[in-house]
Design goal:
4 domains; two-stranded antiparallel sheet; disordered N terminus; 64% helix; Arc Repressor Mutant, subunit A; three-stranded antiparallel beta sheet; mainly alpha; binds zinc ion; Four Helix Bundle (Hemerythrin (Met), subunit A)
């Protein structure tokens, strides 16, 4: 053992991830490290301890700790610094790799235009109204600058500068969850628009003029602090977008003539992330052929013109987000895998915690998503699946969803899943993951007690009764009150 506390770790990308006891233990240690960071409110740059200190603190072997550190690094919660004064440092996380992975995952599972529009309808008018309520001089300047920029860039082919206004409005709500989700929705919309194939130039130009007109009205309402008008204008705007998207349906996945969807990159992204995005896009364009070899390491180095360390970093990101995996040996290479959003959901939940999301931020977004889904489920309450799925979820309230967690999520997840919108389902999973991590970081989980579990069960039962009786108003009222109670526990 050197005084640095960290030995030079040999590169070991050849070892495939296993699901053995080491991995499970490492995952638990990673969660404990992350819970410590959450509890300490993200002291970016602080040293959590040397490798030796961390091994002693968590009572684990070096291989387990190293695996745990890899997970913490993937979640962008910490980074291992080598050398003297080395150890695990707290990081400022970046949501971009996880955002990209979720966007591509949603495309892979076949998110429809209707799902996308429904999600935008639930979140964007809300964002417009919240932005109007808390607009500042600086916010006004940003919005007006966006309008000018849209006009300046209107003639650039392939540029949809008008998308940015939506993301800025999300940011001006001051609600990190709304901001992140609107960013995901705009990326999905933009990728969709890029892939619809040839839209006549005149139509593209007319669409941009329509957007500019309504954006100007929207900005006026927000600047004037008129929340009602901002909300109504955004709803009208989404109706326009929806009409445009339905008349320009894109061809089937993999159909001839489909142009590659391009990911809009932020300046300053690390090279490995740019390569990750290119490989992501390549897989998307190929129609996500699970098991297909994209190329051996040497082929990929040549194709992307990068060094081996950059490729390895990119491969780690792709493996972590379940996009592709490097297979060794004869016939080896980068193999397309079945996507799994779990890792990206974890990363986003942690990112939102870092951004200082509060219980009331979460509640605003959960209200919008869950009340929106409740409407969709109420409309099909005569379908026997509705009653059976929700009753089954209710019966599982006491069952844990993960070690150390109560099963209070089952009911909400079932409700959102029944609405059939995968993007809303993913957003809810991010919010509940965040909620769970936040409460797990406390010394005494508020829902760990039998009383609390029973109260939750009773409240869920009340919502279900009203829903099945077709009493829209009461079902909504009970769901809203229940989310209010959950928020109080979160604090
Ligand atoms: Zn717009
Ligand atoms: Zn609940």
């Amino acid at each position: 053992m050197t005084t640095s506390g960290v030995d030079a770790a040999p590169e070991s990308p050849d070892v495939p991830p296993t699901d053995g006891p080491t991995t499970r233990l490492a995952a638990q240690v990673a969660q404990r490290i992350e819970a410590d960071v959450v509890r300490r409110r993200w002291p970016v740059g602080d040293l959590l301890g040397s490798e030796q200190e961390l091994r002693e603190r968590y009572g684990v072997s070096r291989p387990v700790l190293r695996e745990a550190v890899r997970l913490v690094e993937h979640h962008q919660v910490g980074r291992m610094r080598r050398g003297p004064n080395g150890g695990l440092l707290v990081c400022a996380p970046d949501a971009l790799p996880a955002t990209r992975a979720l966007v591509v995952y949603l495309e892979y599972i076949g998110l429809s235009v209707d799902d996308l529009v429904q999600a935008r309808r639930l979140l964007e008018p809300l964002a417009a109204s919240l932005a109007a309520e808390r607009i500042t001089e600086a916010g006004i300047a940003r919005l007006r600058h966006r309008l000018v920029d849209e006009v300046h860039r209107a003639d650039e082919p392939g540029v949809y500068a008008q998308d940015e206004l939506h993301v800025v409005l999300g940011e001006l709500t001051g609600n990190p969850a709304l901001h992140l989700f609107i960013d995901v929705l705009m990326r999905l919309t933009s990728r969709y628009v890029h892939s619809v194939g040839r839209v006549p130039r005149a139509e593209v130009a007319a669409g941009k003029v329509r957007s500019q007109t309504i954006h100007a009205e929207l900005v006026d309402a927000v600047v004037a602090g008129d929340a009602g008008r901002a909300e109504a204008t955004m709803t009208r705007h989404i109706d326009q977008v929806s009409a445009w998207l339905s008349t320009n349906r894109r061809p089937r996945r993999g159909a001839a003539g489909r142009r590659p969807a391009r990911m809009v990159e932020v300046p300053g992204a690390k090279l490995a992330e740019v390569v990750t995005a290119q490989i992501h896009d390549e897989i998307s364009r190929l129609g996500w052929p699970i098991g297909q070899v994209l190329g051996a390491e040497g082929d990929l180095l040549a194709r992307y013109g990068i060094s081996r360390p950059v490729l390895r970093e990119a491969v780690r990101l792709l493996e972590y987000h379940s996009v592709a995996r490097m297979r060794r040996g004869p016939g080896g290479g980068l193999v397309v895998t079945e996507p799994d959003p779990t890792a990206s959901i974890d990363t986003m939940a942690l990112y939102l915690d870092y951004r200082g999301v509060t219980p009331s931020h979460l509640r605003v977004v959960r209200d919008a998503i869950e009340l929106g889904c409740l409407g969709a489920v109420l409309a099909r309450r005569d379908d026997p699946e509705v009653a059976s799925v929700l009753r089954a979820a209710l019966a599982r309230s006491g069952e844990p969803t993960a070690p150390g967690r109560t099963g209070a999520d089952h009911f909400h997840t079932a409700l959102v899943d029944l609405s059939g919108n995968p993007v809303l389902g993913l957003f809810l999973r991010i919010l509940t993951e965040l909620w769970n991590r936040h409460t797990a970081a406390k010394s005494r989980p508020p829902l760990g007690e039998a009383d609390a579990v029973r109260t939750v069960e009773t409240q869920h039962g009340g919502i279900l009764d009203a829903l099945l009786a077709g009493d829209d108003g009461v079902a909504r009222h009970r769901l809203r009150r229940h989310l209010e109670a959950l928020t109080a526990w979160y604090d």
